[in-house]
Structure formats: structure tokens, C-alpha cells
Design a protein that fits this description.
There is one protein chain. By secondary structure, the protein is α+β, with helices and mostly antiparallel strands. It is 50% helix and 11% strand. It contains seven helices and four strands; from the N terminus they run H-H-H-E-E-H-H-E-E-H-H. A four-stranded antiparallel beta sheet has the order 1-2-3-4. A hairpin with a 3-residue loop joins strand 1 and strand 2. Helix 5 packs antiparallel against helix 6. The longest helix has 25 residues. The radius of gyration is 20 Å and the shape is elongated.
Length: 201
Amino acid sequence: MISFCSKFPHFRKYKTFWTLVAAVFVLDQLTKLIVVAAFGWEADAPPTYFLPGEIGYVPGHDPVAIIPGFFYIVCIDNPGAAFSLLAGWQIGLSIFALIALAAIFFFRKNLELERRPFQISLGVLAGGIVGNLVDRLARGCVIDFLDVHVPLVNYRWPAFNVADCAIVVGVILYLFFSLLPQLGRNHPQAKRFNEEETLDK
């Protein structure tokens, strides 16, 4: 029997990348489905976001306190990008996401996608992009549910989700792996990175 990898050589070559894309996407969508089911989210329904005493609080729509005063589970639809940026740009953000995914594919050689470190970083990044893109196409918005407060400076971070985390982590990892060889030949981490063979073609 012909194995899946031998039948689809591009999957074998970028197996780590595709595996992480799928894993991040499934985790993102699964957590969103759980939150939506738990809070009974519906389009145009009052958000489960504001705490009692805050302007906008709706009785019966209380966030779940995981660490009171610091970390809550909420349920809010976000018409913008990660961390509520560019709200109202749904079509533009969807097009940008498709362009970003296409760029990863067409410029995979320039991005050194054959190397495992870049498969990890770009796989996590692409999985996050796909997760939020599916939300926009299916719901017309992105579901955010992670809510972090910084009490020392009385700041509430904009709500986010697993896909947002993946996008940020993917970009940071890609920059880190890109700069790692520049640490110098004598640096043990840079040496291991430079000597690492590319994955089988």
C-alpha cells in the first residue's frame, strides 16, 4: 500500500508545517466551539465581557473568573484583527489573510520552509491565520474569549483567542530563528542551527 507521504511528497517534505497548521487550527476552533456553546453566543447578542459595575455590563452575561482580578473567560465577537485591531475591516482582513497564506506557499524557498525551525514557526503562524479566517468567513467575526487584566497598572488587555496567540508566537519564533545564525559561529546554539541539515526533499 502506498503511504500517504509517498503519494503526496509535498506533505512529507513539509510534514512538520502541515501538522502544526492542522493542530493549531483544530485547537483554535475547538476552544471557540466550547466557549460559544457554554455562553450561548449568538450574533448581535450582548457580549459576555463586562464585569459587574462596569459600563456595558449585562446581568446574566458574567465572565468566568479563572484567576479573579487577572484572568477571565469571556465571549465576545471581534470584527477586527488580533486583539481587536482594525475593527470593521472584515473583507480587507480576509483578503490580507489569504494573501499571507499564499505568500508563505509561493515564497516557501525564500522563507526556508524546508528547515524544521521555520516549519515550526510558519506552521504555528499559518494555523492561527486559518483559524481566524474561518471565523470571519463562517460567522462574519472572530470569537475572542481570553481576557487578561493587569491590576498593577489598571489595564485590561483586549480579549484574544488561541489563533491570536499562535500568530504572535509564530512571528516571534520566525524572527528568533532568522536571527539565531547571526549570534556568531562560536555560539553553540547558532552552530547547531547552522549545521542542521534540511529536511528530506
